[in-house]
Amino acid sequence: MSASGEISTPQEYIGHHLNNLQMDLRTMELVKHGDTPGFWAINIDSMFFSIVLGVLFLFIFRRVAVKASSGVPGKLQCAVELIIDFVNGTVKDMYHGKSKLIAPLALTVFVWVFLMNTMDLLPIDLLPYIGEHVLGLPALRVVPTADVSVTLSMALGVFILILFYSIKMKGVSGFVKELTMQPFNHWAFIPVNLILEGVSLLSKPVSLGLRLFGNMYAGELIFILIAGLLPWWSQWLLNVPWAIFHILIITLQAFIFMVLTIVYLSMASEEH
């Protein structure tokens, strides 16, 4: 960064795009560029875009539900019905219990993650430029799923549901017995079983959150590298093919997050 605050090298450009807009909750002030954020810092940009996209999802689906007709549906209604049928079929194939929560949860997870992933297809400098030169923001990242705190928070919510369904279906004693008496059904192996089953249980939310974060962070970084290292007139040679391929990635990652959520909750709902 130069004395005037302008970005002068590709390294500074890449580092600038990887900074979140953060606020220190103790002082309620924005964290300046170069300062080390403390434990109480919150990524405002990730929170803002994830909430806005969640509200957009609710608005679109509610609007379609209110205006749905039995006649010839419009394009938006067709798209929403296809998504609902797809998610509903996936839930029926993978979840073998009975719950009114799983299908709406799977739909919310799939569409919300997909919308957050889609932000990666916007021009890399569009919203950060507006934020810096119009709103005076020191940094701005627009892809919430490229923020590990967002993906792990969503995975933590799924983990809480895993514990809830495990205790609901098996009871506290059954859940404890599952952790202590498997895979070796003998009291002498309780410590070993607890370590193995504990690691297996805790790895579910960690892998769920880190898988989504890693793929979206890598995709965002490639767009930044193309913009930071190539002349502007040649960037489209790589940006366009990567963006087309990235459409598959963002859809696949939303699908994987939804499928793993269904599978984990199905495993937790099994009584045996």
Automatic annotation (TrEMBL):
* Family per record: Belongs to the ATPase A chain family.
Q: What is this protein called?
A: ATP synthase subunit a
Q: Spell out the PROSITE patterns in the cross-references.
A: ATPASE_A
Its main subcellular localisation, reduced to a broad class, is membrane
Give me any GO biological process, just one: proton motive force-driven plasma membrane ATP synthesis
Q: Which domain of life is it from?
A: Bacteria
Q: Where in the cell is it found?
A: Cell membrane; Membrane
Keyword annotations = ATP synthesis, Cell membrane, CF(0), Hydrogen ion transport, Ion transport, Membrane, Transmembrane, Transmembrane helix, Transport
Instruction: Name any one GO molecular function.
Output: proton-transporting ATP synthase activity, rotational mechanism
Protein task: Key component of the proton channel; it plays a direct role in the translocation of protons across the membrane.
Gene name on record? atpB
Q: Which organism is it from?
A: Limnobaculum zhutongyuii
**HAMAP family, alphabetized:** ATP_synth_a_bact
Is Lipid metabolism one of the keywords UniProt gives this record? Answer: no
Whether Transmembrane counts among this entry's keywords is: yes
